[in-house]
What we know:
Layout: H1 32-43, H2 48-62, H3 75-102, H4 129-157, H5 170-195, H6 198-209, H7 224-231, H8 244-254, H9 256-261, E1 267-270, E2 273-277, H10 281-289, H11 301-304, H12 313-326
Antiparallel strand pairs: 1-2
Helix pairs in contact: 2-8, 3-4, 4-7, 4-8, 5-8
Amino acid sequence: MSDTSGNQSREWNYHPDLPLQDPSIFKWPPSPSFLARWFARNWLTLSERVMMVIVATIAWLTLYPSLETAQSFAFGWIFQTWAVNMGLMIIVAGGLHWYFYMRKGQGQTLKFDRRDQAKGNRLWSFSNQVHDNMFWSLGSGVAQLTAFQVVAMWLMANDYVPTLTFASNPIWFLLALLLLPIWSAFHFYWAHRLLHVPFIYKKVHSLHHRNVNIGPWSGLSMHPIEHFIYLTSLCIHWIVASHPVHLIFHVIYQGPGAAMTHTGYEDLLIKDKRSLALGTFYHQLHHRYYECNYGNQEMPWDRWFGTFHDGSDEATTTTRARKKKMHA
């Protein structure tokens, strides 16, 4: 049975052991045993990534329109793509919210923040954090996610961009699945740094950061300009050879996947065992202290550029000083 007791403090209901260690696959010198464990954990078990690939494959075969249909822009197949994306977002974000915050299926176990989702606060549209987050996620979020996907499918259908199949290039087909989350992490760090430029933060990114206490619906709750910047990660399919399964995996990773990483819990427990990785304390620290941990744990950028918060009191002091200087 996995240890779920964790640690509590004045600031947190739960946090992992601190200071946070370096789990980056790019740390130097490289450790073959660490890389082997990372690969096995992420790709040789029923991890969140493997589940997304399975869902992407099934969705491509049964739910999304074919490439032949996508050769010209038409309302029917575009609406079908939007409807599938809307359904996936509601199932994932809505399902997680129902289980963790309505059914209270895990109580406070492995929950970072003690508080529940906010109600009766005029900071939020509709005076309700969940309703506000749903509005932005299902409105601008799903619409722009679909728009990027539709353009990519149209480009693939008309051979305007390189495509591949498993039969034609099995090595790159599999390797692309491994590399897409790494590309997404690289893109996310630099897009996120842009969003924290004070003027852009005030006008755009602050909407997402109202979610200090995050929940599943807050993952894709963003200003429309931020949605556009965030989702330009999908433009990689306009350049590099890929297959619709790669595109859909990437769409799920950027959309419903954001709901998973913003659940507010570290893991999903099944029979008291950690069965599915969800949020990370690394990103939870970003939502609490803002000017730190802009990326994620797989990329070393925060450590290289001095914006890493390891959860210690010293790191909090440094981060608050950086924030005060940036927003002076």
